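Pipeline run #58 for the internal structure catalog. This entry was flagged by the ingest filter as a single-chain record with no existing model, so it goes straight to prediction. Upstream metadata was stripped on purpose; only the residue string is passed forward. Reviewer on rotation: M.T. Logging verbosity set to normal.
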Amino acid sequence: MGENKILDLAFKKKVNSEQYSVNSLKKKMMYFFIYSLFTIHCSLLSSCALPRIIVLDDPLSPEEHINLGVAYENNGELDSALKEYKAAAKKLVIAHLYMGNIYFKKNELEEAEACYKKAIKKDPGIADAYNNLAWLYYTKKENLDYAEALALKASELNPSKKEIYKDTLEKIRLLKLTLQSPDNVLR
């Protein structure tokens, strides 16, 4: 595993590249924008016979925002991905996990920690949030006892990913032993 381990854990569902590619979602948004401009233009000119349509809701569903965010993330466009995850987070708790992963990639660890904690608070059943928070603490070399408990909780919540979570747990335990060794105290 390694650095990218935390990022792989959140992607439970594969993105259907035909249905949710960046280009198809951008195209959908562009059509919406053009239609909006056209209806605004028509409303300014009284000769236009089109009815006035006011769109108050986001044209994309929270799931589409997640999928667009994943596509952006896969293209290395982290800020665009974060924007999409934030839009999805209004209605989908799992989006906080994705946001945490982006912040982790950007090495903005306090923000990542806050996102993982928020995901856990809003939905205590998201095993990846526990594991990713444990991995964050492992990376920072702090709260290792708590990190160990988090990794154990992740294994308990999602036994199908037990091997992934076990790897996190073993690395945390090894780090704890290393930091507690007498040789390390002398350094």
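catalog note: The two ends are 28 Å apart (CA to CA).
catalog note: The domain at 1-108 is CATH 1.25.40 (Serine Threonine Protein Phosphatase 5, Tetratricopeptide repeat).
status: ready for reviewer M.T.
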